[in-house]
Amino acid sequence: MVGLAFIGALLLSTFQPVFTAEKIPPRVEARMRGSSYPEEGTAAVSLDELRYLRLSYYDFNGVPQTGEMVCNAAIAQDLLEIFEALFEARYPIRSIRLVDDFGGSDDASMLADNTSCFNYRVVPGQGHLSRHALGLAVDVNPFENPYIDARGVVRPPEAAEYVDRTRDFPHKIDREDLCCRLFRSHGFIWGGGWARSRDYQHFQK
Ligand SMILES: [Zn+2]
Known about the structure:
With 205 residues, the chain is of the alpha+beta class. Helices cover 23% and strands 20% of the residues. The strands form four sheets. The protein has a three-stranded antiparallel β-sheet, covered by helices on one side. A three-stranded antiparallel β-sheet has the order 6-11-9, with helices on one face. The longest helix is centred in the middle third of the chain and has 16 residues, at 73-88. Zinc ion is lined by residues 132, 137, 139, 199, 202. Residues 132, 137, 139, 199, 202 line the site of zinc ion.
């Protein structure tokens, strides 16, 4: 009989990391329609301009996983390179799932600490399209790295304990953080450096 520890070690050693980008497959479009993408017709960004990525990462337990992300074709290569570098460094990421797994709800995705990119939505409280609506922004480990708007409203509200960035805690994104350095080296702007609102999870190009 083969021990469970051995099988576990075998699974780890045989994990095949995946970093691929392709046009939105029909099965993914079906998941997006009526959720992160309009039910019918075309949004400000067409499906042809979007890419479906498969990205491997290490979860918070140090276990390799492969997630899914939809982004604008213009940043697909950047994201493949950034997430491959994060994987090689074993940078911990809670999960990388499509917001469609959360009913297209950004709040639900953030509450689950999910890393994601495309979602056809407006900026909360402002009404104009977010960079996420063009697939040009990524939110990483959003629960430990919340968004604090100019009025001081925290999103997700449950993450209030992570507003104080003078504190040290796991998965905190600051300027020296590897993820932050990688995104910036690829020409992205980090939301944690903004003057009025602070969006510690957010990188946009
Ligand atoms: Zn964001």
